[in-house]
Every structure is written in structure tokens, then in C-alpha cells.
Write a structure and sequence with these properties.
This protein is an alpha+beta fold. The protein is built from two helices and seven strands. It has a single domain, classed as PH-domain like (Roll), CATH 2.30.29.30. The chain has a seven-stranded antiparallel β-sheet with strand order 4-3-2-1-7-6-5, with helices on one face.
Length: 173
């Protein structure tokens, strides 16, 4: 026998491909999904940098009420958020990005004023949102790179308008 326990003349392909097929297929799907997210994020970043407006999504039933002058930027049907710097509380629900806030709907929702976000980083397939005061959020959503582009652009637009933060409805982060 060879070092890899194959009989002489046996190719590595057939037996191992049959055995590893689903894992390889899953890995290929993940790589393709990441590539598509990167391409979409790049196209959207370029589009927004030309001054194009956000493509306002349909908020749907259960959407949070908007503040005067606020608009929806992006909606994610499913999100999981872990509060960092606390007991690691995990929340889940529909995640709305507006021109002023990040709003998680659900049984224990939350509101985050975009002006309190210091940085948004991509860690693996999750977003790490650093907030004022040393707190943070670990956000798990589909297409995190594209969502990060939307958050960054909304923050940038807010910072170009000198206005104090408004009181937010509902529980705060």
C-alpha cells in the first residue's frame, strides 16, 4: 500500500471526491457567495460615490416608524446581533438601516444612532460595529460587505450635515 492507503494504480479522484463531494460543493458555494457580495459592494460603492441616491427598499409590515426626514436605506429579513462589552446578549430579528439609525425589530429590538458608530469592520462573514463608549455589536447578516457599504455611506452623509443626535424611540443599544 501507498502512504495514503490507496491500492497501486487507484486514482485519488473518484473515491475521495465521492467522500468529500458535499464539503467541496459547500466550500465552492461559500466562495461564490463571498465573491458576489464583494462585487455587489464594489459596484454599489462606486454608484453611491457618484452621488446616486440609495435605492429605497420596501420596508414591509412591522417596519419601525421613521423620524421626520428619515428614510430606509437597507432591510435585512434576518439578522443576529450580539452585544459586545456586555454579557454577550444575542438578539435576532429584521434589521433596518435608515439614513439615521440601525434598527433591529423583534421581541427585544434596539435602535442605534448612526452618529454613535465609530467604525464598522468585516471580521470573517460578520460585521463588528464599534460604538462610542467602548461598546460594540457583532452583526450577522446576509451580504455583509454590501451592508457595510450602505452603513458607511449613510454615516458619511450624516456627518456632512451638522446636527445634534435626536432622541431615539424605543430601547437603545
Amino acid at each position: 500500500m501507498h502512504d495514503d492507503d490507496r491500492a497501486p494504480g487507484t486514482s485519488i479522484g473518484d473515491d475521495q471526491l465521492a467522500e468529500n463531494g458535499p464539503a467541496v460543493t459547500d466550500a465552492e458555494a461559500i466562495v461564490e457567495r463571498i465573491g458576489e457580495d464583494e462585487r455587489n459592494a464594489r459596484v454599489e460603492r462606486d454608484r453611491l460615490q457618484t452621488g446616486a441616491p440609495f435605492d429605497a427598499p420596501a420596508a414591509g409590515p412591522g417596519a419601525p416608524p421613521l423620524l421626520p426626514g428619515e428614510a430606509f436605506v437597507d432591510v435585512r429579513a434576518a439578522a443576529r446581533i450580539e452585544r459586545m462589552g456586555t454579557d454577550g446578549e444575542q438578539l435576532s430579528g429584521r434589521l433596518y438601516l435608515t439614513t439615521e439609525r440601525l434598527v433591529l425589530s423583534g421581541r427585544r429590538g434596539m435602535d442605534v444612532d448612526l452618529r454613535t458608530i465609530d467604525e464598522v469592520s468585516l471580521i470573517g462573514e460578520k460585521l463588528l460595529v464599534a460604538l462610542d463608549g467602548g461598546k460594540g455589536l457583532c452583526v450577522d447578516v446576509a451580504s455583509p460587505r454590501l451592508f457595510r457599504v450602505h452603513i458607511a455611506h449613510a454615516i458619511s452623509r450624516l456627518r456632512t450635515v451638522a446636527a445634534p443626535p435626536r432622541p431615539l424611540p424605543g430601547p437603545a443599544a
